[in-house]
Design a protein that fits this description.
The complex is a heterodimer.
Chain A: H1 7-61, H2 68-98, E1 106-109, H3 110-124, E2 129-132, H4 136-139, E3 142-145, H5 147-163, E4 170-176, E5 182-189, H6 196-200, H7 208-213, H8 218-229, E6 233-240, E7 243-255
Chain B: E1 4-8, H1 12-24, E2 28-33, H2 36-45, E3 52-56, H3 64-74, E4 79-84, H4 90-96, E5 100-103, H5 108-118
Parallel strand pairs in B: 1-2, 1-3, 3-4, 4-5
Classes of the chains: A alpha+beta, B alpha/beta.
């Protein structure tokens, strides 16, 4: 027997679902707007507080009466403030990217980006030596990026430096290629052991147990999210070239210039 | 000649810090203001105009961009350095006439370098 189709009921159901979908979209949009507004207000206050702390530290360190130990601690406090600023800026950039308000991608000289990141790292961690592969400062190809590209490389370097407890920290930087569309930035250190929770899980799939072990890798998490937002890839593996059982290597793949 | 400065920021603690550090470094702080409207009032009523104005953006009553436009309307040669935690406002600040933009947080050395550069005759 031929089945009669109740078109009215179908139309009614479809209409209801469409209405629900619109409502969900509206609520999601409102949620994003709300989050964006909170981030905006929070970032202003936090960065202003960081400004006040840094200016205070600068004021204190101008005093000739300050002893060497106190000077050392105030310098370390300044480093912590600068790292928190970098992390906060990164979170803000990610929020903007989620809102599709991120600054447009433009060609960026990767050599210049790396030199700036290394200089910034050296100001924060003078004890860490950074070596770059030969000619890297002149020959690296251009990538498509924005401020987020610079910040994510620095964020990854900072996290490596934070994990390195050795007296003479050393990070090696190289360039590689994993395909025609991307350029790889390779960061490696023989002293660092990456927490296994980070190697095994992606943040959204963390259990509370693995999250409790996901310590001192916030910079890597942020760098990974920022790389994804730039249509790239971020991988961390144990071992370095020629030393598979020592240290770790980070591969940051960024889009090569000239590709759509 | 000593470079003179007007400091505009809504946070008292930051204003005091800028003032103390700049005075220690030999700058003459002509005055301070806690919002854009107060800055315009102080600027207009002062006989001695500052070489440089350090202008924050987010402030009650009147923001930094509005105050910058207003001050430059009365004196288009006034040098204004914009300082803000909101990097997205840089274009608006420069369009309003600010000669420099410094994102917060910054080092005072960076601010002083910009002050020196813009106050050159």
């Amino acid at each position: 027997m031929k089945r009669l189709i109740n078109w009215d009921a179908h139309i009614e159901t479809s209409g209801r679902r469409l209405g629900e979908a619109r409502l969900t979209t509206t609520r999601t949009g409102q949620g994003h707007d709300e989050l964006s507004a909170y981030m905006d207000i929070l970032s202003h206050d936090i960065l202003n507080n960081n400004q006040a702390i840094l200016s205070c530290i600068e004021f204190i360190t101008t005093s000739p009466a300050l002893d060497e130990r106190s000077r050392e601690y105030t310098a370390k406090a300044a480093v912590k403030v600068n790292i928190s600023t970098l992390m906060f800026e990164s979170i803000r950039e990610l929020c903007l990217a989620n809102q599709s308000e991120t600054p447009p991608l433009r060609p960026m000289d990767l050599s210049e980006l790396l030199v700036d990141a290394v200089q910034a790292l050296s100001r924060l961690f003078p004890r860490v030596t950074v070596t770059t592969s030969e000619g890297l400062d002149k020959t690296a190809p251009s990538i498509m990026g924005n401020q987020m590209a610079s910040d994510l490389v620095l964020m990854a370097l900072v996290n490596l430096a934070l994990l390195d407890k050795s007296e003479d920290g050393r990070i090696d930087i190289g360039i590689g290629e994993s395909g025609p569309e991307h350029v790889d930035v390779l960061l490696s250190s023989r002293h660092i052991r990456i927490p296994s929770a980070f190697l095994e899980h992606d943040a959204p799939h963390l259990t509370s147990d693995s999250r409790s072990k996901m310590v001192r890798v916030a910079g890597f998490l942020l760098a990974r999210l920022m790389t994804k937002a730039l249509d790239g890839a971020f991988e961390v593996r144990g071992g370095t070239d020629g030393h598979p059982d020592e240290g770790c290597t980070i591969r940051i793949s960024l889009r090569r210039e000239g590709l759509q | 000649m000593t470079t003179s400065v007007l400091i505009v920021d809504d946070e008292l603690f930051i204003v005091e810090l800028y003032r103390d550090i700049l005075q220690l470094r030999g700058y003459k702080v002509l005055g301070t203001a806690f919002d854009g409207e107060e800055a315009i009032r102080r600027y207009g009523s002062s006989d001695e105009k500052p070489d440089v104005i350090i202008m924050d953006h987010r402030m009650p009553v009147m923001n930094g961009v509005e105050a910058t436009r207003e001050i430059l309307r009365s004196n288009p040669t006034q040098k204004i350095i914009f300082v803000s935690a909101d990097v997205l406002v840089e274009k608006e600040a420069r369009d309003a006439g600010a000669v420099e933009f410094l994102p917060k947080p910054f080092r005072m050395d960076d601010l002083i370098e910009k002050m020196e550069r813009v106050s050159q005759p």
